[in-house]
Specification:
The complex is a heterodimer of chains A (339) and B (508). Chain A has 339 residues and is of the alpha/beta class. Chain A is built from 14 helices and eleven strands. In chain A, helix 10 runs antiparallel to helix 13 and helix 10 crosses helix 14.
Chain lengths: 339, 508
């Protein structure tokens, strides 16, 4: 109970402090008394929702006027529904912020039907997390590295949810470029069902983000064999896919695939939001990423907290959209747009 | 183990944990009654508050809230024919029919009591399964899950009308359900099926707005046409009668118990979804009818049709904790949010929960037990008042009901598409009622189609033809045949015994 009271007191204190500062110190941009909505393109019960909520919980402290920040889930079509809404329907007044599928830029690159948003025109706010994709196999299998996996007999069964998901596309491209003797068994309802199938030895491996695989790797169920390029110290000893291939076009394709991981999970504002509001948000995210309370909480939830500025996000997006046609052609044959 | 069991109880009974649990129960109570705020969303909203709590307190709070939602969500199904939590639709069939007959109090009493029995059985199943949980869950592979879905679909035979004509209609409705479940992006090749260029349809037809439309809208239309209160045709003095319902639960205790076990079992199997437990136990309740004549009473207000789904709906919660706790793989989206609670409190779900943190795991069992007892105790005094709602005139009630229906549908995806789906299925449902087609098989097809498709594909892709020879598959095949043949057997036996059994049917 004491904690509840303390929480209430803190909230009250924040509200009082907030209303005192706003309008005085920070000039025109103030969110005092307003409610900011973070539109999350996924349902509750997943990584995006979890990230959206932990950010929403702390973001208000760093925005001028200390607004209340709430999460609204708008799932559908791998985030395209939320993206279209933010781009065309939401008012560009800075009170609606979006968080959706980091692969959205591939949707534009691959020309996905129904996506009505130009990734170059978003007001990129920035990202406070970073992801690494890993390819793992069951730890009780005798294969220790990629070379041994080429001679695997019988071929390993790799679980996937659907084409377009990281669990499907990443193993597919590794199989082709690294000549791994694996086959993909697709159609599991979710990642958790795949993990259970690995546990009962129905499957031999799975690919996924490190933040979701970490608990299973740590308790010895799976072993990480390959990662996408990453500076995460926890994966220091794991070879990256880009280093394992030799052919330049293959390297280029894998580098392209890893781009969304470099952005992490970015937050965006609608294109027409005024520049000073965008500035206030970018500053808030920079400070949020340094905030110790936020960091501890996000890390407990499994996120790797690394700040990427909005400007950087935009640069990376442009890099993707300007990829050489030859690379895009090969990329298209392996990757579909999805979650 | 007994030590851990007691330790778990003592930990929940500590003042801090107990207060948090009661607080959770209070929130869950309202969330369950009000459609539009799903249990999963509420869990996600409340998750940040557990930051800094002890694990036992955190789970007392979260589980206390979650376990109540299943109980109070049933209330609107029975009172107004509106599935409160989307997945408690099986209760509408007989629960709302009883309400229309003026037996709302009895239906609510029966439901509440069976919910309690279900919750206790679910908690007991969880406690009993802990030592054997790994082999138990791991023996169920894709082929067994496929056969379980097939067995569920086989219940269509029992949920259809009588005779060849009734069966044909049931099968057709079931086939339509399967067809609707195939809408969306297919999970093997990524092909968009029946999406007609609509982004909304990528993810398929959401079960919640479909079921809400199918069951609630026809009843509201009917109410508007009648322009009376829900229970207008019934004598008013029967409106209460809560105790009669409680007694019903013990009159059919065997059935309540079996349906609780079905619910717990299905809860343990991840990936089957919450609706499955309810419908399979409803199908089982229908099968418990001894004669065809008795069977025909289902859907028209048989209390057994309330007891079965009510019990299963609560017992599945205990079951669904098992994969979450023991493997760190959540069996439902609510459990996925709960998994966040593990991380926030610094616990690692997995084998450790069955050894090092066993008393925390048992504290979850106790939370389920206590929270449900508290809820039922809180609800009982309210029931007579709730039952009186059914005497309100339609003109006053309908706007409120419409709001509940569309809010409930809209929150599935926060999209206009949800409203359209609800209305479309509402029209379909009205036509089905009007022309005497059963709706239950359609829902069964819709709920199980996706699961069946996925696991059939995986079974063949992974095992070739070998999956057909697995012992579990054979067992389920036999059970499926039994499920299919029971209605025919009943009819045959009845024809042979004729009037002799007909007279003894009420002895149940």
């Amino acid at each position: 109970m004491a904690r509840g009271v303390k929480l209430l007191a803190t909230l009250l204190g924040l509200a009082v402090a907030g209303s005192a500062i706003s309008g005085v110190a920070l000039g025109q941009v103030s969110f005092a008394g307003k409610t900011v909505t973070v539109v999350v393109g996924n349902p509750p019960g997943g990584g995006y929702d979890r990230l959206g909520r932990v950010v929403a919980r702390h973001l208000g402290r760093f925005l001028p006027g200390n607004p209340t920040v709430v999460v609204q889930n708008m799932p559908g079509a791998a985030g395209v529904v939320a993206a279209n809404h933010l781009y065309h329907v939401a008012r560009p007044d800075g009170l609606t912020l979006g968080l959706f599928n980091q692969n959205m830029v591939f949707g534009q690159l691959l020309g996905v039907e129904g996506l009505r948003a130009d990734m170059r025109k978003w007001q990129w706010v920035g990202s406070v997390t970073r992801e690494t994709d890993v390819f793992t196999i069951r730890a009780d299998l005798p294969y220790r590295n990629v070379q041994e996996l080429r001679r695997a007999d019988p071929p390993l069964a790799i679980g996937a949810t659907a084409p377009g998901s990281g669990s499907y596309d990443f193993p597919l491209v590794l199989k082709a470029f690294l000549k791994l003797n694996v086959r993909i068994v697709s159609g599991y309802p979710g990642r958790s069902d795949i993990m259970l199938a690995i546990e009962r030895k129905e499957l031999d491996g799975v690919a996924g983000s490190w933040s979701s695989m970490k608990p299973f790797a740590q308790r010895g169920l799976v072993r990480v064999l390959v990662k996408t390029p990453s500076e995460n110290p926890e994966l220091r000893d794991v070879p990256s896919d880009v280093d394992l291939v030799t052919e330049p076009t293959h390297k280029a394709v894998l580098q392209l695939h890893a781009v969304p991981n470099r952005i992490g999970r970015p937050f965006v504002l609608p294109p027409a939001v005024p520049a000073d509001v965008v500035r206030a948000y970018r500053e808030a995210f920079r400070r949020l990423a340094e905030d110790p309370t936020f960091r501890t909480e996000a890390e407990r939830l499994g996120f790797e907290v690394v700040y990427t500025s909005g400007e950087q996000c935009l640069r990376i997006v442009e890099e993707v959209l300007n990829s050489p046609p030859g690379v895009v052609r090969i990329f298209k044959s392996f990757f579909r747009f999805g979650e | 183990m007994v030590e851990a069991l007691l330790d778990g109880l003592l930990r929940v009974l500590q003042p801090n944990a107990l207060v948090y649990m009661l607080f959770g129960v209070f929130i869950g109570f309202w969330v369950g009654i009000l459609p539009g705020l799903g249990g999963t969303v509420t869990l996600a909203l409340m998750l940040p508050f557990v930051y800094g709590m002890e694990p036992v307190q955190a789970f007392a709070f979260l589980l206390g809230m979650h376990s109540v939602v299943a109980t109070t969500g049933d209330l609107t199904s029975i009172l107004f024919g509106i599935p409160g939590e989307g997945l408690s639709a099986a209760l509408v069939l007989d629960g709302y029919a009883m309400t229309k007959k003026g037996e709302a109090g009895r239906a609510l009493g029966a439901n509440l009591m069976s919910s309690l029995v279900g919750a206790l059985v679910g908690a007991a199943a969880l406690a009993a399964a802990i030592p054997v949980v790994r082999p138990l869950v791991l023996s169920f592979g894709a082929p067994e899950l496929f056969m379980l879905a097939v067995m569920g679909i086989a219940f269509i035979a029992s949920l259809s009308g009588r005779g060849a004509r009734g069966l044909a209609r049931g099968a057709a409705a079931g086939a339509l359900g399967l067809l609707v479940s195939s809408v969306g992006q297919d999970p093997q090749a990524g092909i968009l099926r029946y999406t007609f260029g609509q982004l909304y349809l990528w993810g398929g037809i959401d079960i919640v707005p479909a079921v809400v439309g199918l069951f609630a809208l026809p009843e509201i239309l009917d109410l508007m046409v009648r322009r009376t209160s829900i229970a207008a045709t019934a004598p008013t003095e029967k409106l209460t009668g809560v105790w009669e319902g409680v007694k019903d639960c013990f009159r059919h205790f065997g059935l309540t118990l079996r349906c609780s076990l079905i619910g717990a079992f299905i809860g343990i199997m991840p990936g089957l979804g919450g609706g499955v437990a309810q419908w399979m136990s409803y199908g089982h309740a229908v099968q418990s009818a001894k004669t065809a004549e008795e069977r025909a009473r289902f859907g028209k207000g048989d209390v057994r049709g309330v007891l079965g789904p009510g019990a299963a709906n609560n017992s599945k919660e205990g079951g669904s904790l098992i994969p979450t706790v023991a493997f760190g793989v959540p069996g439902s989206s609510a459990m996925a949010v709960l998994l966040g609670g593990f991380f926030l409190t610094g616990l690692v779900p997995g084998p450790d929960m069955l050894t090092r943190h066993l008393s925390v795991t048992y504290s979850m069992v106790w939370t389920l037990v206590l929270a449900n007892v508290v809820t039922v105790a809180l609800c009982f005094p309210l029931l007579p008042y709730l039952a009186r709602l059914t005497a309100i005139r339609a003109t006053r009630l309908v706007p409120f009901l419409m709001l509940l229906v569309f809010l409930g549908a809209y929150t599935a995806n926060n999209s206009w598409g949800d409203i359209l789906v609800a209305v479309t299925f509402g029209i379909l449902g009205y036509a089905m009622v009007r022309f005497g087609w059963p709706r239950a098989p359609l829902v069964l097809g819709l709920v199980l189609g996706d699961v069946a498709e996925r696991y059939l594909w995986i079974s063949v892709a992974r095992y070739g033809w070998d999956w057909l020879g697995r012992p579990g598959v054979v067992v389920f095949l036999v059970l499926t045949l039994a499920v299919l043949l029971v209605p025919f057997f009943q009819e045959w036996r009845e024809r042979r015994a004729g009037y002799v059994l007909g007279g003894a049917a009420h002895a149940d």
